[in-house]
């Protein structure tokens, strides 16, 4: 049912059938469905699983995600930041570093995937001395619909009723993908009452003077070149809802760029 119907993206554009413990999409190959708490006991070997996608949000640390290897999967991709991962990958920026020796990799967070492509372009073009990011972030299922207990008392509050300050490791994680910026970026998060699409507001001190025009040209060149399909840009006055089904990791709002005193930049 939840595959057929989605509150954010609407109806799934294919026929979904359930037969016993399998589902089929448009009459294709049956896909086995299991419900097993311990990933180490999943039937990965029996099913010939090559890559396990760890998307529960529970088994994110490398030692826990590696349970999929124990079960017989050849590789594991964690859809979140993962402590001790063999490599943290932001597609389009450092995916070419993957080797056969990387068994458990992290795909980083959605915020890191939004920030890193832009940071990569601007650091290569003008250089980034240090910077600070604020993500105005849609609520997630880590937040309750009504007030209830949570280890983070900010996140204990009803998600759809307030703007909620909380923490994020997205900016610091940039250093895992771009080692030259390790320790030079930090950030915070404000959760807001929207269900999808978030904003990154990034301010940094450039290593040399620059201009709105230079930044715009660099972003456009990357969007139409090496980062095509990963980094996009818009010159229209769009709002978050307009990007609801957009598959880019990051969309740069051209008219939001500000430069103060030559080297202080806001994007």
Give the SSE map.
Blueprint (H helix, E strand, L loop, with lengths): L4 E2 L3 E2 L4 E4 L2 E4 L5 E2 L11 H4 L3 E4 L7 H4 L1 H4 L4 E4 L8 E2 L15 E3 L3 H16 L2 E11 L25 E3 L3 H8 L7 E8 L6 E8 L5 H12 L7 E4 L15 E4 L4 E3 L3 E3 L1
Parallel strand pairs: 6-7, 7-9, 8-9, 10-12, 14-15
Antiparallel strand pairs: 1-2, 3-4, 4-5, 10-13, 11-12, 13-17, 16-17
β-strand amount: 25-35%
According to DSSP, the number of beta strands is 17
Order of helices and strands: EEEEEHEHHEEEHEEHEEHEEEE
Strand order of the largest sheet: 11-12-10-13-17-16
First-residue to last-residue Cα separation: 40 Å
CATH topology of the largest domain: Dihydrodipicolinate Reductase, domain 2
CATH class (first level) name of the largest domain: Alpha Beta
- Oligomeric description of these chains: single chain
Q: Give the helix/strand class.
A: alpha/beta
InterPro entries: GlycerAld/Erythrose_P_DH (IPR020831), GlycerAld_3-P_DH_AS (IPR020830), GlycerAld_3-P_DH_cat (IPR020829), GlycerAld_3-P_DH_NAD(P)-bd (IPR020828), NAD(P)-bd_dom_sf (IPR036291)
Subunit structure: Homotetramer.
Pfam family, one: Gp_dh_C
Domain Glyceraldehyde 3-phosphate dehydrogenase NAD(P) binding: 1-110
What characteristics describe this protein?
globular, alpha/beta, 6 helices, 2 domains, 17 strands, 267 residues, Rossmann fold, 4-stranded parallel β-sheet, 6-stranded mixed β-sheet, Dihydrodipicolinate Reductase, domain 2
